[in-house]
Amino acid sequence: MKLWLTISYDGRGYAGWQAQDNAKSVQRTLTDAACAVYKRRCLVTGCSRTDSGVHARAYSCTVAFEDGDITSVIPAGAAVRALNSALPDDIAVLSASSADDAFHPRYDVKSKTYEYVIRDAEIRSPFLSGLVYETRPISEPSFLRMDAAARAMTGKRDFAAFMASGSKIRDTVREVFDCSLRREGEFVIFSVTADGFLYKMVRTMAGTALAAARGRISPEDVDGIIASRSRACAAETLPPCGLYLCRVDY
Predict the structure, then answer these.
(1) Which residue of 38, 65, 89, 208 is most buried, as measured by CB atoms within 10 A?
(2) What interhelical angle do 26-38 and 76-86 show, nearest 10?
(3) Is residue 53 left, alpha or beta, with left meaning phi > 0 and alpha meaning psi from -120 to 50?
(4) In terms of domains, do 232 and 127 share one?
(5) Which one of the listed residues 21, 51, 90, 120 is annotated catalytic?
(6) Is residue 20 part of a domain?
(7) Which residues constitute the domain of residue 128?
(8) Of 82, 101, 80, 4, residue with least CA distance to 39
């Protein structure tokens, strides 16, 4: 059996999820904590890669031994406290349960939901650096244009126009189930749920929606941008600071 975790983390101090030889990663930090708790080598597998500086509110991953049942050593219910005691303050295990060896946290995913958090205010916050994207105020008509552009990004389509240049991914068709905006006080939340995402796709979608809010494109242009399959036709890729993985469904 595997240990199936839901974790959250502040990505500011990490070069993304994926373990790397020359940079601090969430995967490596969680692996080190698990090895310390279980006193043996542990294998940690995540649901996806997140880029440097990207955060997670509900990231799904598994911890397993190369052989043997990890849940027989420490029950899943007690693993939350044990792992959190070995982790730094910017990573937290939210829940733990047992999962069959056949379960894979990446390949069994049905959909993932990301949110891009934008703070639109006249004065930047000194407390939110690296946690949100700051921009000037978005008026109600601009918000409505931005939301219309976001909603035009749904469907099963070729999203190559929203993929970072230089990516080696060949199959660029994804199904976006929902893409919309909501306002929460001084924050504008760009939310998107899909069966998968291309490299920097969400940040480019959010940048394109923001371009609609600023009048640089119209919501009606979105279909043409997608049909072009050209990264040059979409707007800027927003920085990683505002991006959060919020939900993984199986």
Answers:
(1) 208
(2) 110
(3) left
(4) yes
(5) 51
(6) yes
(7) 111-249
(8) 82
Whether 51 is catalytic is: yes
- Angle at alpha carbon of residue 19, lines to 13 and 65, rounded to 5°: 120
156 and 46 part of one domain? no
Each residue of 118-148: b (16+ CB within 10 Å) or e? bbbeeeeeeebeebbbebeebeeebbebbbb
Read off the tokens for 56: 């997670």
* pLDDT per residue of the chain (250 residues) written in tens, 0 to 9: 999 999 999 999 999 999 999 999 999 999 999 999 999 999 999 999 999 999 999 999 999 999 999 999 999 999 999 999 999 999 999 999 999 999 999 999 999 999 999 999 999 999 999 999 999 999 999 999 999 999 999 999 999 999 998 888 899 999 999 999 999 999 999 999 999 999 999 999 999 999 999 999 999 999 999 999 999 999 999 999 999 999 999 9
Residues 60 and 120 in one domain: no
- Is the pTM here over 0.85, yes or no? yes
